[in-house]
């Protein structure tokens, strides 16, 4: 196996990465729903108990509003931090070989053995490689030459999971 994938770290790449991570790798996707439920719960408590417990409903409503705005603020802050980094608009190359994966970026080079990848998540747009420590390696499917290359990588990871 010798598959080379080049990834350009652009603003669009970061947006897609965050959105796909949110959808497939994070519990944060539930934050807006939970915040709305907190607000509704606070309102129900206020209606049921009227003014006898005004602090409690105010707490739930306030916390729900905070969580709702924090959800959108966190995304914008994350994107802003990535776009402001020195790696933006640079290219990272991943080389998938028989015994390891090499990463060559503008500021560092790294190698990881295949048995260090514990899982993969394939979606319509991307492939996540998940190392032992929980970090996600995000690969856009458009970076590959063919679907067969993606299948080879998934099969390689799965072969180590079975051992």
Can you give keywords for this protein?
alpha+beta, PH-domain like, 163 residues, elongated
Structure description:
The chain is an alpha+beta fold. The chain has two domains: 80 residues, PH-domain like (Roll), CATH 2.30.29.30; 71 residues. The protein is 48% helix and 25% strand. The strands form two sheets. A four-stranded antiparallel sheet has the order 1-2-3-4, with no helix packed on it. Strands 5-6-7 form a three-stranded antiparallel sheet, sandwiched between helices. Strand 5 and strand 6 form a beta hairpin. The protein is elongated and about 70 Å long. The two termini are 20 Å apart.
Order of helices and strands: EHHHEEEEEEH
Structural class call reads alpha+beta
Cα-to-Cα separation, first versus last residue: 20 Å
Q: How many individual β-strands?
A: 7
- Name the helicity range: 40-55%
* Biggest sheet, spatial arrangement of strands: 1-2-3-4
Detail the poorly predicted runs: none
How is the biggest beta sheet arranged? 4 strands, antiparallel
Spatial extent as radius of gyration: 21 Å
Number of contiguous helices: 4
CATH fold descriptor of the largest domain: PH-domain like
Would you identify the CATH architecture of the largest domain? Roll
Number of domains: 2
Shape: elongated
> What is the CATH domain class of the largest domain?
Mainly Beta
On the 0 to 100 scale, the average pLDDT is 90
**Strand proportion:** 15-25%
Write the CATH homologous superfamily of the largest domain: Pleckstrin-homology domain (PH domain)/Phosphotyrosine-binding domain (PTB)
